[in-house]
Write a structure and sequence with these properties.
The complex is a heterodimer of chains A (333) and B (407). Chain A is mainly α and 333 residues long. In chain A, strand 1 and strand 2 form a beta hairpin. The chains are: A mainly alpha (333), B mainly alpha (407).
Chain lengths: 333, 407
């Protein structure tokens, strides 16, 4: 490793690390504009050009807000829970391939790390996020937060299985756990074609994993007020918010990587890297937009219905789908 | 630290392992300041007790302390989602007390019907929006309020206020007769009315069906024994609507159907209200048509000097007119001693006013039978055995407004 190797690695890490606190700002703004259009209202239009600085202003407001901790809260865990939420959400980005390898004198990939167990790493980081939810729910010493934490520990653990089954079906085709290999394996055919069922499972589970409507039971604004983070305020609350949007972005990026061929697409000759990143961003944006549409259109499931849906419908379908995929694969090779 | 929070309610625990959850009075889904004490086993509700009174303003006592005219402004602050309808119930009760119900001119009767139905639409829009929002359908809420806004514009055009309308007076429309322009605007509103958008978003939605079917079941017997009225009663298969049973205003002159559903669950109540909204549009359309058909210059106030002030241009030149005007302004209407009860079909159920008059300008006693207050009681019963999420759906389906519960 010479200086330039180090330079490239550090630059990549910094780029991803700096992108992620900023991305939620853009994402929230985009969501509010989208929802505004969908709900025949205006949406943000005051701060900056057409309200484009609205979320930045909101972030500033949260930053200078008083940070209250409930008197009976477990202070250490209460303090640590937001960190526990954000860290895995950021760490999982290490394995996301943003674009094809670039050749500028030396060749390097547009990803932080190409782990040979990249998919496992992503799933593991997703699992760690639950602890933040559970810790915040327990430490708040509030009944609403407690109920939210209970709901989420059950929900996220259940939907992780569905997520895993969807991902496994892809791995059967790619034959590798590395996300870069998975993208390379889709050069001819995107995995959404042979694995459409797996894709749907992944999409539903992604909504469940990120606590978004219609599966946003841990927060369930109209039942549990704000669920697990009801006692949080100011910057600590912003951490939860950031983690949620980082997770949406992550799930969208992984969905694009696993099923829509990552950076693959028509390329402009000579600009393979840029068009690759462009495709990746476009595909990710498609999923992000789907998240927003779900929120605007669908009511919320009830707790028992959610669990029934997961265990009685999604998991059997996922298991059968995995078996079928494996059998087909065996028959081919 | 012991804090004396005043008189408080307690819920007897049925099991030592259960948790008591205080839902409200500050909670986004209790539709105001309702407080529910829930005994929970996990998410399941073992017991429920409703506590109210957080919005008590003593409306009945205040009405007794003002002349009859002054009470109008208090009534639209009870069920603030349907102000004009409350005003009408109040005014018609006074008219019954005075025995002048038959003197009300046809124009006023049609106008009252139209405005009452518009306020039914406005009230049901609040309900369908918040009920959808409670269940998680966010867009339905905003689309619903967009439609309601159009109705509030119509109110504003007719009487100058959007919510606290103080619409019309004893004996007719008072100063609030409307011109042809308003009728045009009502027709334009009916033309562009987009209830079907909300309808398509919710009625057939799989998640919405899952959340509302077989939830919060009220049997026919329960509904009758709890004295429920309005859509909650009609959702349990009882075809009782005062507009049909004891027609008032112009309801005997218009043609409309009474939606009744047998199931008694949250979804049945949803369907009752939704279909009512379509029927309301029919009624409004017919009223506007009838108003246009009336000969020009038809009176909109009863020709009774005891309730209707004289033409203001006659007051400076005509002694009798001046005395009449002075008496009405200073003392208001003065019913003969006696008592009267009159009720109308408010959006939320039977809204009744009971008056005792001692012959003066102020009521000796006023009692309000508010539908939300009576309907609220059933929540305690049907919430038991449900999940927390169902409780929220149940509150929405019973459709209470706390301004009217507490008064």
């Amino acid at each position: 490793m010479d200086f330039w190797d180090w330079f490239i690695v550090v630059t990549k890490v910094l780029a991803v690390f700096l992108l992620l606190p900023v991305a939620p700002l853009a994402l929230v703004l985009f969501e509010r504009w989208t929802l505004g259009r969908l709900q025949s209202r205006i949406g943000p239009n005051r701060v900056g050009w057409r309200g484009s600085l609205q979320t930045a202003a909101d972030g500033l407001k949260l930053g200078i807000k008083e940070d209250t901790i409930p008197a009976m809260a477990d202070k250490g865990i209460f303090w640590f829970a937001p960190v526990m939420m954000v860290t895995p959400a950021l760490a999982a980005w290490a394995v996301v391939p943003f674009g094809p390898p670039v050749d500028v004198g030396r060749t390097f990939g547009l990803w932080v790390a190409d782990l040979n167990v990249g998919v496992l790493f992503f799933l593991a980081m997703g699992s760690l996020g639950v602890y933040g939810v559970v810790m915040s729910g327990w430490a708040s010493n509030s009944k609403y937060a407690h109920l939210g934490a209970l709901r989420s520990s059950a929900q996220i653990i259940s939907y992780e299985l569905v997520l895993g089954l969807g991902v496994l079906a892809v791995i059967v085709y790619s034959g590798s756990l590395s996300l870069v290999d998975i993208v390379n394996a889709q050069a001819g055919l995107w995995f959404i074609v042979p694995q459409f069922i797996g894709f749907l499972l992944f999409l539903i589970a992604a909504v469940g994993e990120t606590n978004r409507a219609p599966l946003d039971l841990p927060e369930a604004e109209t039942e549990l007020v704000a669920g697990f983070h009801v006692e949080y305020s100011g910057m600590r609350w912003a951490f939860f918010f950031m983690a949620e949007y980082a997770n949406i972005l992550l799930m969208s990026a992984i969905a694009a990587t696993l099923f829509l061929g990552g950076w693959h697409g028509w390329t402009i000759p000579g600009l393979e890297a840029i068009s690759g990143v462009g495709w990746f961003v476009l595909k990710t944006g498609l999923f992000v937009f789907a998240f927003f549409l779900f929120r605007a259109a669908l009511p919320r499931f009830r707790y028992d219905q959610l669990m029934n849906f997961c265990w009685k419908i999604l998991i059997p379908i996922g298991a059968l789908n995995l078996l079928a995929a494996a059998a087909l694969r065996m028959a081919w090779s | 630290m012991a804090v004396n929070a005043g008189p408080r309610m307690d819920l007897e625990r049925t099991s030592p392992d259960s948790m008591i959850l205080n839902l409200g009075p500050q909670h986004p889904s209790t539709h105001g300041v309702l407080r529910l004490l829930l005994e929970l086993d996990g998410e399941e509700v073992l017991g429920c007790k409703a506590d109210m009174g957080y919005l008590h303003r003593g409306v009945e006592k205040l009405i007794e302390a003002h002349d009859y005219r002054g009470g109008i402004t208090l009534t639209d602050r009870m069920d603030y989602t349907a102000g004009p309808s409350n005003n009408m119930g109040y005014l018609m009760a006074i008219e019954k007390l005075m025995g002048i119900t038959d003197e009300i001119p046809l124009r006023a009767r049609y106008l009252r019907t139209a405005v009452a139905e518009l306020s039914r639409l406005a009230s049901h829009h609040i309900w369908i929006g918040t009920h959808g929002l409670d269940i998680g359908a966010m867009s339905a809420f905003l689309w619903s309020l967009r439609e309601r806004e159009k109705i509030l514009y119509l109110f504003e055009e007719a009487c100058g206020a959007r919510l606290t309308t103080s619409f019309m007076r004893v004996g007719g429309t008072g100063p609030h007769d409307v011109g042809d322009q308003w009728l045009d605007n009502v027709e334009a509103f009916l033309e562009g009315y987009a209830l079907h958008e909300i309808d398509t978003l919710l009625t057939e939605n799989e998640v919405f069906l899952e959340r509302t079917r077989d939830v919060g079941h009220i049997t026919r017997e329960e509904a009758l024994s709890y004295g429920l009225t309005g859509p909650v009663l009609r959702g349990s298969g009882v075809a009782w609507d005062l507009r049909k049973a004891r027609p008032y205003a112009a309801y005997d002159l218009v043609d409309f159907e009474l939606p009744v559903f047998e199931e008694g669950d949250v979804y049945a109540r949803y369907l009752v209200r939704l279909n009512e909204m379509y029927q309301s549009c029919r009624i409004i359309g017919q009223c506007v048509e009838a108003l246009r058909g009336l000969p020009s210059g038809s009176p909109s106030n009863a020709a009774l000097p005891t309730v209707t002030p004289p033409d203001i241009s006659r007051v400076p030149v005509d002694m009798e007119a001046m005395i009449n005007h002075f008496k009405l302004v200073m003392h208001g209407v003065q019913p003969e001693p006696g008592e009267a009860y009159f009720s109308i079909e408010n959006p939320k159920g039977e809204l009744g006013f009971y008056f005792v008059s001692d012959g003066s300008g102020e009521p000796y006693r006023c009692h309000v039978r508010s539908p939300s207050f009576v309907n609220l009681a059933i929540i305690e019963k049907i919430s038991v055995g449900a999940l927390i999420a169902d409780v929220v759906a149940i509150i929405g389906s019973v459709d209470i407004v706390l301004g009217e519960v507490d008064r």
